[in-house]
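haha ok so turns out i had the wrong file open the whole time. this is the CORRECT one, sorry everyone. sequence first:
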Amino acid sequence: MGTALTSLPTVTESILARYAATPTWWPTAPEIDVAACLYKIVTPYHPPTWGLALHEARFLYAFPNLLSNLKYGAPIGDPPILAHTFIPNNLKSAELDPAYMDEFLASEVATGCIDSLFMGAQAHDIFSGHFHTAPLGLVKNPGSTGLQMIFPKRTILANPPTAG
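then structure:
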């Protein structure tokens, strides 16, 4: 017994679905100084104080690179070459108080702790390739009614520039 192929009528349905409007303009990021971004070292430690403490404790010999690493930065480990760019969404808690988030980030930019907005193409230029970012979020500050910014310690991971 064989199977007979029959032509079936084409059925089309209209399904209503929500959509997002395509923006007609894109925000512009300010011009960037690549050298200032790549070599910015932000640390809560004060290298001269550490140097004095290590010297007085006679431990300076045990940590010969520590002061240089605090002053100029130091790679941690030997991360693999990144094969793609990864930019996750912020944590849902970032939506708890958007005004606080904006004020906090503006303050960090104003004090030079972080750089301002980068477009993806600018970040690719700065890091000479792919990069990963970490999401931001807010948590309740213990003993206070305020919120505190949280983010993983390694906020940007990028391929190092190659010597050429």
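The longest strand covers residues 137-140.
again sry for the mixup
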